[in-house]
Every structure is written in structure tokens, then in C-alpha cells.
Amino acid sequence: MRRDLYRTMRTIRRFEEQIVELVNANEIAGVTHEYIGQEAVASGVCAALRRDDVITSTHRGHGHVIAKGAAVRGMMAELLGRTTGLNHARGGSMHIADVSLGIYGANGIVAAGAPIAAGAAWAGVQAGSDRVAVCFFGDGAVNQGVLHETMNMAGIWKLPLLFVCENNGYAVSFAQEEATAGSIVERAAAYGMPAERVDGMDAEVVLEATERAVARARAGEGPSFVECTTYRFVGHHTAERTMGLGYRTDEEIERWRLRDPLLVTGGRMSPDDVAAVDAEVEALLQEALAFARESPRPQAADAMEYVYATGPAPRQGVSA
Amino acid sequence: MRRDLYRTMRTIRRFEEQIVELVNANEIAGVTHEYIGQEAVASGVCAALRRDDVITSTHRGHGHVIAKGAAVRGMMAELLGRTTGLNHARGGSMHIADVSLGIYGANGIVAAGAPIAAGAAWAGVQAGSDRVAVCFFGDGAVNQGVLHETMNMAGIWKLPLLFVCENNGYAVSFAQEEATAGSIVERAAAYGMPAERVDGMDAEVVLEATERAVARARAGEGPSFVECTTYRFVGHHTAERTMGLGYRTDEEIERWRLRDPLLVTGGRMSPDDVAAVDAEVEALLQEALAFARESPRPQAADAMEYVYATGPAPRQGVSA
Amino acid sequence: MARMRYQQALAKALRDEMTRDEKVFIIGEDVRASLRGVSRGLVADFGRQRVIDTPISEQAFTGFAMGAALAGHRPVVEYQIPSLLFTAFEPIVNQAQKFRLMTGGQATVPVTYIVPGSGARLGLAAQHSDHPYALFAQAGVKTVVPATAADAYGLLIGAIREDDPVVFFAPAAVLGTREEVPDELDAIPLGSGRVHRAGDDVTIVAIGHLVRDALVVAADLAEEGISAEVWDPRSILPFDWEGLRASVEKTGRLVVFDDTNRTCGLAAEVLATAAEEFPLVVAPKRVTRADAPIPFAVELELALLPNREQLVTAVRAVLTKEALR
Amino acid sequence: MARMRYQQALAKALRDEMTRDEKVFIIGEDVRASLRGVSRGLVADFGRQRVIDTPISEQAFTGFAMGAALAGHRPVVEYQIPSLLFTAFEPIVNQAQKFRLMTGGQATVPVTYIVPGSGARLGLAAQHSDHPYALFAQAGVKTVVPATAADAYGLLIGAIREDDPVVFFAPAAVLGTREEVPDELDAIPLGSGRVHRAGDDVTIVAIGHLVRDALVVAADLAEEGISAEVWDPRSILPFDWEGLRASVEKTGRLVVFDDTNRTCGLAAEVLATAAEEFPLVVAPKRVTRADAPIPFAVELELALLPNREQLVTAVRAVLTKEALR
Ligand SMILES: Cc1ncc(C[n+]2csc(CCOP(=O)(O)OP(=O)(O)O)c2C)c(N)n1
Ligand SMILES: Cc1ncc(C[n+]2csc(CCOP(=O)(O)OP(=O)(O)O)c2C)c(N)n1
Ligand SMILES: [Mg+2]
Ligand SMILES: [Mg+2]
Prior knowledge:
The complex is a heterotetramer, with 2 copies of chain A and 2 copies of chain C. Chain A is about 45% helix and about 10% strand. In chain A, the strands form 2 sheets. Chain A has a 5-stranded parallel β-sheet with strand order 1-2-3-7-6, sandwiched between helices. A two-stranded antiparallel sheet of chain A has the order 4-5. Chain A has a single domain (about 1-315), classed as Thiamin diphosphate (ThDP)-binding fold, Pyr/PP domains (Rossmann fold), CATH 3.40.50. Chain A is built from 12 helices and 7 strands. Chain A is an alpha/beta fold. The relative contact order of chain A is 0.16. The radius of gyration of chain C is 20 Å and the shape is globular. Chain C is an alpha/beta fold. In chain C, α10 (about 265-275) links the parallel β13 (about 255-260) and β14 (about 285-290). In chain C, about 40% of the residues lie in helices and about 20% in strands. Chain C has a 7-stranded mixed β-sheet with strand order 3-2-4-5-7-6-12, with helices on both faces. Chain C has a 5-stranded mixed β-sheet with strand order 9-11-10-13-14, with helices on both faces. Chains in contact: A-B, A-C, A-D, B-C, B-D, C-D.
């Protein structure tokens, strides 16, 4: 399990590092929000999940999507805007999804995934299954009203739903302590659900907390809340470097880097093991990148595809 | 003070009873949401306020507006759709306001008044004054996200804002216990503010709780939350009688009627005192009704007035 | 032929479809008690798992429906008042509507959002009188505004069966109207307009409750020998442009009767498309709601809503204008 | 003349107005750090009480601004991305906009809602690429979409000084554009359009960043002897109909170039009003965004946005059509 956790984290880390390069080289359009530093959360949580469990993710979604099992080559192709991408080049980083694996999407809107996960959790119960749903969100999201509405619903309907708050200390430039009155776990507890705060830099700790919550949910005992304290080692998104926002110090970053989740978990493995996994991951990523680069770009003529499932195509911007 | 509280409650009660008759007689258009049974809350809270304090109200707003000091004749004229109404016949029951008295409006949208009150509270601080703002809302509103967003803001900015939850047990037909996970005051407490639950059928109890909260706010110590347990003796709105929603029993209503806030407070006064106030209120209401009935109706030609403060008039639905 | 109220037709449609398809459920505020009658009695027959009362949490229950839809259900989400759609605008327009495109077709989101009682209702004032269907068409969400009980029945079933999100506006002004309906009611697919009354001189496009008024006007005008066609798009998006084109090709003249705000409303779209693409012989006209919130007093409210006299004037105007070609 | 970026013009306008009027403040996410530069450096000079970073709570901070406005302030509310307006739709459209009407003129609500970076930005995909100005015009909220740095300066000051709510869309595509601006920049009142280039043969109505493209097209066409007038409404609501009428009276021909969804977009409104009221000699045309969310891949994104070639084709089409009168 430790090796698996490390592998997942290493995959996320290297995927992200690769992505940053590709964005900076303009091989990937737009901006992406890196998960570097937070790998233990997605890896630990998803290690407790089954394939048929559902997750909803965030703008900072690559880690969750990889950890839930999405094909890295499909992700790479998506980000490079190729038709072989998971979303056929329609989604990109902020909307990447693999519905067949229960990944109901990254999301460009903070906290928007929470009620979607609640609906999926409810549907699992209706289907007579014991599957669960997990919604990931940041510390900034705890101040979005819809999250509270969802916590309440999950509470009254005893939904098999796990709220995972990744507290990385900031919403873009705004510090969590300044943004948040009271404590995050107390908010959740007020909805009558178990809420705990755990070390989000240690994937094994995250996994254990998740296992407790998932067991409760599968047993029909309702929702739980886990706050994972973590940190992002890089900017809010790839474009931040050039923006000079200056909301945190280099010292702070360095302090957190000492607790790099890859070091935390990797440090408990033999160096050989680490090296073997690293090599494995490297090969996977190179293959993915090659695959993506060789894949075709979409055709402008297909730009209106997928808008509606049925009925007439949407109208073009010029009439015939 | 007791006499004043009773007078306010009696005014609200009789106003409401009058309104129901007028709605049923089609003298008032639309529907109105009666406050009958809940009078102790508005009366108790507003007795602790100054003229320059601000309140935001709800769909069930007549009580708050009367208690904050609005002219009953202006309210009656408004509801009868006359130009002498507080809102010049533009608002009606659900939007009745007297901004000059700090009444920032009844509101047709559940919980929408909360952030407006927060802005007003902040503005008081900026002005160097010790004025406070109060937002009223129901038990149903505690499940609206915007209320949470506002509680958080009030907490981090230490706003002189008082949250008054009127828990009358139902949001239309939906029982509060079924709708709400955990407890209401715990939710508020999670934002780090003092939160207490008080008997909302006793105006003196409400007044005391409000005085504590207002004192804190004026002293710069930030927001508070008061949950007032109360009950509405009549339907959700005037139209409910014909709808047969059947979500509560007659026994339940009768049980609560034993704690009628007018009896609770009136029972502590001499019968003569009560009779004197009742007569006073009766005269006031009859005068108000006569005034309203004699007042002119608005002209169709003025229908586009007040939409914008400046600039061209909005377009009509037909071109010239 | 049976007689049925519009809202009964909605209730029958929902009941029939819930009976036929166990994946259909209704969720919203007070749907067990059913304030507008759409779900009346359903909880007794289908239970609380398929007739779900929610807390006052529009954003969450709208998102919830999307999650349930992704997991295979076909939710019907009820909003008590039209402006609650504003509160749920993000989860409808930005999440449910865009999901299929964003995921490259990985999933469909078959949710029906219904407002039983949209538009003005005499005395409900500014926050309860909007009729915001043009907003959803602008945002690309399928949008339906049925005019009659039979259409309400057929289009609600059509909407529920759509694999895309659909916003369904049942105008307050017709909810209580009783009408003859055929014994056999069928589903109606979105995107097919309806000729309520055939005519040769002018096409009146009317939407929702205004169809009824347009038919009265057309009947009056017929007595003067004016032959007006009353055409109803039934769904705003998709819009049956071919159906409208056929009507305008016949009449050459167009008046649109629409109860959304004038600016960027549905009438604007119809006039624009017609001006650009259809063989109009004179300039078209529109009769719409004014660009203003609805004031409380009934006199003021009525002054801002489109009415029959305005329609008559507009029809006469396009008929007396000289043809351009 | 100085050279200035569009976003610098916005920043200067905000700073100038905050200096002039102590009741003006800015509130939104990360406005101290200022992701888009509109409030850059302001916190150092005006302090945290007038440059207010908020939690991620759009509904609440939008309502908060209204409360502050009722109490005498003139808030500027910043949204980081256009679709956040969907989350704040209710408090803007249903509360702030309607308050003055609902209270019979008891108070004004002078709030400016600004989106510095609206519209598509290459690769930001469906949830970050909307340009939803038509929605606010439909809902009756004053709406501004400045095309140039000087107009951005003048209209932002104009918007802040308005006593009504105003939504201010700064198109992403021009935020970084550097331009010549006059040394003396002035406030520009809402409701006055602008002729960017005079011409006799055809009126091109262009909005926001598309003005720049329209000017390129007009210059190209001039080489062929076609004289196109490029006219910019600058504010969508109120709209300078008299200004547009004057242009169309001169040219008789109209093409609208608009980056909102086609259905019920701004172009629809302009075509509708022109068809109804203006002396067009041939049928007008519009070139708009397609009716679809923006897909991620750049090829797909560009295929859905209005472009110069489409404009050229449309202009040629209205010029070659035979005049009707
Ligand atoms: C509702 C909403 N508001 C604002 C934004 C803009 N935005 C994107 S990410 C972000 C910060 C999110 O902070 P947090 O939830 O802590 O997640 P993190 O970025 O730290 O992972 C903001 C403000 C958004 N996408 N959605
Ligand atoms: C956001 C919103 N959702 C739904 C409604 C419809 N509605 C009006 S009052 C009401 C119930 C409110 O319950 P509560 O807050 O307890 O106040 P009460 O009516 O009991 O005074 C509902 C659902 C609304 N006006 N606004
Ligand atoms: Mg964070
Ligand atoms: Mg209640």
C-alpha cells in the first residue's frame, strides 16, 4: 500500500512538473493549477475508494483525477488539446473527467462539485449499492454557501458522502486564517457529522482517516468531513510566477517543503524501491507525452459537437 | 417598557388581522405572509434598537417594519396600493421599506437580507458610529448558503451585526427538524460568535437577549446570533387556507396559542392597561385604514417611474 | 375529449412519466405538499425517495439533481418562484448545461427544471413576477414555455425524456385555465412549433399564456376580414425556425407577442432572425413586456405587460404599411 | 498623448475616483494582490478598509456591497471570472437592480460590478470564457463594455458615478492592449455611443474588443473603396439608439459584430430595433459568437468566436444586396 501511495504521488508530481513545462512552452493553452505539494491528499483519499465510487474535483484537479485511476496518457492528450484526450479536447485542465471511473469532473467553480457529489451519493443508495461519493475542495471553498447547503443535505439525508477539505492555507493570495471565522472542522461538526483534521502531508494518515469515513458511509451512517492540512509548493496557477503577488514568504514555502509528501512516504521506503517506482513513473509519463504529441488535434468543423445530446445542432454565429 | 412591547405586539397583531381581511376581500392584491404569533420577536428585538440602526427583513416583514417604527398608515396605504404608501405603491407587502428609519426592506427572497445588513453594519463602523444592523430570517433560511457566507464575513470583520433567527418550526410546509442537520445555534457558534436560543414568545426575554447582543456590537465586539423559538398561528400566507397543505395539526396550533405572546406579556399587565393600549391601537389602525382608502391610486402612465435614478427612461414594450 | 386544467395536465404528465420510468423523481421545496399542484398526491404513491422535499437550498438541490442525473436518474427540479432560477443560475447554466460539451460527450445530464407559475400574477411585485425564459435561451439551455394544457402535458414529458437539461416555464397566467384536451395525450418533442390558427395576412408569434390572447385578437380581426396566423414556438430553444419560416413565407408580415423584457428578449431574437433570413414584405413589429421590474400596484403592473390592444395596433400597423417587395 | 494599457486605464480610473470620493471602495477576491491589476497598489495608499479582500462568497459580498451602498457608499465589486456573475445573479438582478423601483425611489444603489477579463482567453474553456453582457441587459441592469483604454477610463468613472447598479465588462482580449490616450481623461456618461471611424456605405456596430477588429476590417475595405462606419454603443443599457439611428440613416445598411451567444444576444436586439424602427435599405446581418459553450482546444474555441473574415463576408453581403427602397 505504501508503495502504491508513493507511486500515485510520484505520478502526480511528475505529471504536474511536466505540465508546467508544457504550459510555459505554450504547448498547453491557458493556465493550469498545480497540485504540487498536496499529493498526499488525493493519493490517500482515493486509495480508500473503489472504482464505482464517485469523486468531484476542483480547479486543482489533476491529482484527484490521477489518483482515482484515470489514464495518464488520456490526461496528457487532453491537456495538449488532442482528440484522444479524456474529454476529446473539449475540457482541458479545469474540466477533465472520466465519468466511467466515477470522476465527475474537475470544476472551474469553487465548491460547485459538492452538491453534484451529493446527488451521486444519493443515487448510490437508490441503486442499493454501498458506493460512496467524495467531494474535494479547498480551504477557500468553506466560505462558499453551496458547501453549507450540501453539508446540511448530506446530514439530513445521511448521504454516503465524504467532504475532503484540502487546507493549503490560501485561496489564491488570501490566507485561510484571515478568510475564515471559527474553525473549519467545527463548521462541519455543526451539521452533526464527524469532522477531523489530519496531517495532509502524510498519505498514510489521510488514507486511515478516509477509511474510517468510508466505512461509516458504506454502513449507512452518513457523511463525514476530513480537513487535510497541506500546502502548495508552487503558485496558484502556472501564470502566477510572472505576477509577483507576494502573499507568502520563501521561508514559509521552504518550511513546508521539508514535509514534502513524497519525502514523508518515500522516506519510509527503501531507496531501491523508491528508485524503481520513480523509473516506472518516468516511463509512464514519457509514453503518455509521446502518445499525446502524436495524437491529432480536433477539427474546427467539429467545434459544435457534443453541445446537445439530441435535437438540432446549435446555431453558428453567422447565418447561411 | 412592558407596555411599549405590548403596544407594538398589539399593533402588529391587529394590523395583520386587518390585512388578512383586506386580502380576502380583494382590497389588497397578491398574497401576504402574516406574522401572527411571532410578534414578540420583532417587538423585543426592535425595542433594543435606535432609529439609526438598520434592519433587513423577510417575506414575513410587517412585524419587523412596524416594530422598527414605520408609520402604520404608510404601510396600510402601501398594501392597498396607494401613492401615499411607504413605497408609493411600488413595493407592496414583500418589499415594504422605510430607508429613512433604517428599514432596508422586506424581501421576497429567503436570506437575501443578510448580506445587505452586513454591508450596512460595516458602513456604520466606517462612519465612526456605534450603530448596529440586524437581519431577521426564518428557520428555513439557515439552510441558504448566503446566510453562512454572511456569518463568516461578520465573524472575520467583527461586524456589529445581529442575526435573528425566527424559528417558527416550518419553512412553508417543511418541518424545521426535518430540514436541518445539527442545531441552529451550533452552526452560528462555529463562526466564533455568541449564539443563544431564547423563548421567542416572550418579548421581554427577546429584548434582554437582544440588548446583550447589541451591547457587544456597539462595543466593537462583533456579531451575535439569537434563535427565537416561536410559531405562526396562521398559514404560511393568506392563500394557504384554501390549499389544504395539512403539514401540521390543529392540536399543535392550539398548544402554541396557549403561549400567545400577547397573552404572555399582556398577562403581566393590569387589565385596564391592556384595554387602554388596545383602544389606542384600534384608533391608530382605523385612522390608517381610512387614510389608505382615501389615498389615490397610482396612474398607469407613471408605471416606469423609479426604475433608474438617472439616464433615459427604460423602453416600453411597444415602439412609438 | 376531457376537460383539464393546465396544472392538472402537468401533474398528469409527471405522474405518468414517474410511473413509466422509475428513474424519474421530483425534488424541490414543499413538493410533498405541492403548492402548485404539479406533484400533488405523488408522495403517497411513489414515496419520499421520489418526491423529495428539500431545505431552502436552491444551489445545492440544483447541483444535487445534476449528480443524480450523471448517475442515471432523470430528475425534475421544481422552483417555487421564477427568480429562484437566478439563485440556481450557476449550477444550471455553468454546470449542467456545459457538462456534456466539457467532457466531450462522456455523459448526458437529463434534468428538467420546472417553474410552475412564471411571470406576473397580479400583485406579487418585482421579485416574484419575472418571466426569465430569454435568459436561459441566451445561455444555451433548452427552454420550453407551453401555452395550453395539452402542450403542457406533452412538452413536460418531452422535456423529461430529453437527454439535455431543459428549463420548463409554466406561465402563472394559465396554470389554472381549464381546457379541452384530447383523450390520448402524447409526448411532444422539443423544437416543433404549432399553428394555433391558420391565416394568410400576418404571422403572430405568441409565446406561453399570450397565445390565448393572440387567439382572441385573431378572432376579432377575422371579423374585419384580417386573416392572422397564430404561431407558437412552444420551445424557445431549440426554436422551430423552419416552421416559422413557412408561416412568414406565406404571410410576409410578422408581429411577435412576448412577455419577456424587451431588450434582448425572445421577440428580439425572432425579429432579428426574420429580418436577416426571412422574406418579410414590411418591417416586423414586437409587443413585449417593458424593460422594467413589475411594480406592486395592479394598475402599474398591467401597464408594463404586453396586452391585446397593443397587439391589435401592431398587427394593423404591419398590415397598413406598404410592402417593400 | 500618453501610451497606456487598457488595464492601466482601469486602474487609473479607480485610483482617481477613490482619491476624489472617499465613499468609493473596492471589494472582491484578491483585490489587495490584484490579479488583473485593476486595484494594484491601492491598498498601500487607501488601506484595507477601502481595498477589501473577501472570502470566496460571491453572493454575500455582492449583497454586502448593496447594503454599503444604501448606507451611502459607492462600492466597486470585482469578480475574478465572468461566470461568477452567475453566482451573484440574484443579488445583482433581483436585489440591487430592483431596490429603487420597489421602494418607490427611497434610495439609490450606486454599485459597480466589474469583470476585468470577460470573454474567451484562448484555452480557458467553457466555464471561464463567457461574455454574458446580454444577460444583464435583458434583466434591466445597466451594462457597459468599453472598447478602448480611454473609454475604459471614462466609462469606469461614469459607472462609479451612476446612481444605479452598473455591470462593467472589460474584455479579456483587450485588457493588455496598449494605446494612445489623451492626457486629459474624462468621465464618460453611460448611453453615448461612439463613431470610431466614419463611413457612408454601411454601419458596423461593434462591441468591446471587436471594435478593434472592426476597424481593421473597415481599413481593409476602404482600400476597395468601401466606406464603412464603425459605431460602438459603449454601454449596452442604456443604449444610444439615437446615435445608431443617425448612423443608419446615413448608410442604410447594418452589420452587427457581437461576442455574445447568438440567441437573444446584443446583436439580436440591435437587428430587431433596426428592423422595427430604422430606415434600412437592405436586410441587416449579424456576426456573433455561436450558440455554444467554448471548448478547450484553441482550434475549437476560435471556430466559435466571431472573426474578421465573417465580418467582411457579412459587409459584402449587405452591400451587394439590392436596396429595397
Ligand atoms: C465561486 C468561485 N469564486 C472564485 C473563483 C476564482 N478562484 C479560482 S480558484 C480560487 C481559490 C480557491 O481557493 P481554495 O478553495 O483554497 O483552493 P486552492 O486554490 O487553494 O486549491 C479562486 C478564488 C472561482 N473559480 N469560483
Ligand atoms: C431563496 C428562496 N427560496 C424559496 C422561496 C419560497 N419561499 C418563500 S417563504 C419560504 C419559507 C421560508 O421559511 P422560513 O425561513 O422558515 O420563514 P417563515 O416563512 O417560516 O417565516 C419559501 C420556501 C423564496 N422566497 N426564496
Ligand atoms: Mg486553498
Ligand atoms: Mg419558518
